[in-house]
Amino acid sequence: MVRSKPRQVEHPLVKGSFQLVVCVFSETVGLVTNMLSRVGQIRRCAASLSQTLTQVTAARHKHTLPDLTYDYGALEPHVSAEIMQLHHSKHHATYVNNLNVTEEKYQEALAKGDVTAQVSLQPALRFNGGGHINHTIFWTNLSPNGGGEPQGELMEAINRDFGSFQKMKEKMSAATVAVQGSGWGWLGFEKESGRLRIAACANQDPLQGTTGLIPLLGIDVWEHAYYLQYKNVRPDYVKAMWNIINWENGDQATGMCRYAVTSFSKDQRANVMQTRQRYKLDRICGDFLKSFTPPYGPRV
């Protein structure tokens, strides 16, 4: 005799609950899948937008080669037209182009969060950015009607800090000639003390970024600045440069920077490193140098 299996009776409530669970689970999976899909789309859109903004920002903030206010031959016989043409349209232009390329790579590295790439680009930023800063200042330091001695506040500051114009000239010439290899000799303004200082920087290291001094007068002693005319006799080149120095430009800069310091009390100046006054002082002095602060400030 074959025994039949007992018949299983499904309770309607159990069956309905199970179907409800399955339905809810299916809906939940669908919602989660849809949400993840949207998140992926948002991330892709954000990445695309970030890249676009980076490209737009880079395009809007390109550095450009500044125009000279005088002809290439205007500084002869002290600096030949050939040297000026090569120095400005070739050497300075190369620094500008390389700086723009390096900044684009740096912005891409920032967007990707690639710290290694950011660090590796620092030397190129320093070299090409410094070259652009230094030469932009250098051209304003020269004039066909230059030479002689400065007037006004700059002359007063020179006499106070060096004893006389001749002593300052001798000290700066010696420091500039003594630069080993390539570099720059500088007369700069020290904000903390309100005094003038002489310094030398190697290669294209910018004065303010290296020493904190605000550049007033710079002499380029890279060989491309003089070798075609003066060969290896750097002292003769430095001596000739004093005949075309634009002292009017230097005096204006000194007056603006001196005002930035003397407009604060002695106690405020003493605490300038720890207070917001430092920011205000930098902003005032920076008005003169606002074109000379790439890669992070306004562009030339």
Automatic annotation (TrEMBL):
GO CC terms for this protein?
A: mitochondrial matrix
Which PROSITE patterns does the entry mention? SOD_MN (PS00088)
Boundaries of every Manganese/iron superoxide dismutase N-terminal domain copy: 62-143
Ranges where the Manganese/iron superoxide dismutase C-terminal domain occurs: 150-249
Location within or outside the cell: Mitochondrion matrix
Pfam families (alphabetical):
Sod_Fe_C, Sod_Fe_N
Record's catalysed reaction(s):
2 superoxide + 2 H(+) = H2O2 + O2
Question: How far does the signal peptide extend, from start to end residue?
Answer: none
Record InterPro entries: Fe/Mn_Superoxide_Dismutase (IPR050265), Mn/Fe_SOD_BS (IPR019833), Mn/Fe_SOD_C (IPR019832), Mn/Fe_SOD_N (IPR019831)
Instruction: Give this protein's Gene Ontology molecular function annotations.
Output: manganese ion binding; superoxide dismutase activity
Q: What is its EC number?
A: 1.15.1.1
| Cofactor(s) for this UniProt protein | Mn(2+)
Domain of life per record: Eukaryota
Q: Name the UniProt key words of this record, in alphabetical order.
A: Manganese, Metal-binding, Mitochondrion, Nitration, Oxidoreductase
The role this protein plays is: Destroys superoxide anion radicals which are normally produced within the cells and which are toxic to biological systems.
Family, similarity comment: Belongs to the iron/manganese superoxide dismutase family.
Q: How does it assemble?
A: Homotetramer.
Q: What is this protein called?
A: Superoxide dismutase [Mn], mitochondrial
